[in-house]
Amino acid sequence: MEMQKVPEAGYKIIGLWISGLQRKLTLDNLSFPFKVLSSLSKSKKIVKDFRPDVVVGVGGYASGPLLKMATKKKVPAVIQEQNSYAGLTNKLLAEKVQKICVAYPNMDKFFPAQKIALTGNPVRKDIVELEGKKAEALKHFGFEAGKPTLMILGGSLGARTLNDSMTLNLQKLIDAGVQVIWQCGRFYHAEMQEKLKGFEGADKVLLFEFLKEMDMAYAAADVVISRAGALSVSELSIAGKPTIFVPSPNVAEDHQTKNAKAMVENDAAILVKDTEARERLIDEAIRLLNDEAQKSELSKKIKALAKPDAANEIVDEIVKLIA
Q1: What's the pTM value of the predicted model, to 2 decimals?
Q2: CATH: 3.40.50.2000, 3.10.20.30, 3.60.15.10, 3.30.300.30. Which one for 2-121+308-322?
């Protein structure tokens, strides 16, 4: 995705031929050594040509070879770990870099404690500034004030479990008078549009492939259902929204479950397992929408874990290395 989005934003991007190492024996793993050698060679040339003052890695596959070659040339380096469970790339790089910016406490079980800065994850500025937007947001979506509003976030690609949970239980939401902002993802949009036609009274169920005005969506929502990717957790913390997390089981080292549990352990969110979502999720959402005391408590607790100034704090750490 970044190979398209970064140039659209006006920046040059250079791709590396690299991917993750599969945890089981697959044909893809046979090409992995060649990908590593190719990426190391290309990274060496990038560092030589660009001559950076500092390098920053955020845990993706490309961070590994690029930061390895940069640190070998004695270029100062920062890594950012977005999740509560450190990824393999960042763990391998930790000894070579000068500073490690993290989004969760107690990350010294993965990294040298003296290198850690608890900064949080950067999020979009418009989400930091939601105060006083609810009336405008409800009007934006054509919703009524005073009626409960639920938002479902499946990510840009969508989430089959969340979409199935919706279609299997949508009538319950309609009967309960719930207004719905449903972001189903581009892979599922046509299918969900077709299924939505079969429901009477679904005029207050708005289906989106992708949500551009996320500030409006967050401002309108009383409760949010979401996967538990690192940036989603950070955004929901800053938005201060009562949230039900349904962690994806299809991610490396099950880090979404660990992200969600870090919230639940602080009484800041509710967790519904992916395997239980089709039966439990919508009933839990309706119950929470009608529980003002729990909504207020969850909102207060999740907001207390927010790091709204994360971007500036990470930049401060970078600047310290080159000042």
Answers
A1: 0.86
A2: 3.40.50.2000
